[in-house]
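> @MW can you paste both from yesterday?
MW: sure, first one:
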Amino acid sequence: MERSFEKSLCLGTGIPFVLLLCLISVPNAIVLIALYRNPLRCFRKAFSVFLVFIAAMDLYIGIVVCSGEAAMRFLCAFGDKQIPQEGDIPRILGYIGINSSILLVTAMSVDRFVSVICPHFYLREVKPRKLILCNTIIVVFSSIFASLQLTGISIDIYLLIDIHLHTTFPLVTTTLAYLGIFVALKKRSRVDLQRQSITARNSRLRNMRQLKIAQMERKFATTSFFILLFLILSLVPYFVAVIIEANCSICRGQKWLFVLKESSVIFLFLNSTVNPLLTIFRINGLKHSVKIVLRLRRQNDVNSFGSFLPPTSLANVVSN
């Protein structure tokens, strides 16, 4: 491949990584600060653990991965380095972040499924400490799997395993989980309607509480579904390029395929820019907490949002 073409490609893909570095790091840092400070005391249950881990992993992608990719591409454009390839340290660090995010979202989908299908079991058995352990195992596993590239394993075999492990499996699992959530919520809404018609003399406070719990379950399920959707959309261009390269021997070495693959790498990180904005927009407690952290609103001017989001700060989550 011509060196001038490679330098142009490195420069053209390096600039977006600098932009991603800012667009990913700043919002996720703000979200983590809001979760840690927890000014409204509205993050006290297990679901908060997923918010913390996903935001932390996105922050890692912004600060570590995007800065590494940008540095390598600028060294390629203005120095004698080559564009990052499979097996290079920046690419391995990227695999750690992206694979961890995929599996964390998958675990969050299963968590939402269990909380909707078996609410009493979930409240009794699923504790923040257990989810912290589970999410930590996911991150460690993703780190070990990404590090396999350093052992000399065939990249084609590695990518094949990676596609099935971090695309096929999560897609099937989350599809089944959200299908189960949808059926359960639809069935529960009919049962609740029948109960309300039979027990019309129930207190208004109890009915309002049941309504808020149902709204909270739907909002959490919908929010985690949107996170999954944007994650899949960000993965599609890269895996299409990988599949074309693996199955089209004539296409290998062609400039258009090289440009497609390197450009699609950028899309892998777009999900990390969407996650903080999506969670802030969808979760009222987090939205108002962020406003308080940014001093856009005084804490005394905001009512308690404990009914909207499982309440506790990161410090409380760790201490439970």
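MW: second:
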Amino acid sequence: MIIEFSQGKIIANQHEIVVRLTQIVSVTMQSQTEALKLIGHGVNVITAHDMQCQWSIKLDSEQQLQQLADFLCLPIQ
């Protein structure tokens, strides 16, 4: 699945997501789905946190977050 948003693209499969940012050339963030947390309620943020790294990115809309949540079968908190 590919979701395009103002800062780049999210490429997801059942095991991981990759976020490619277009504003900053050659920036790619990757995470296993087990390390993801989806935050909704107007915030619309994906966070990844595990033992080695932590990152987060804000999406443009709750619809984009919902698409990702549905595809990955993850709850939105």
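> thanks! The helical segments are 62-72.
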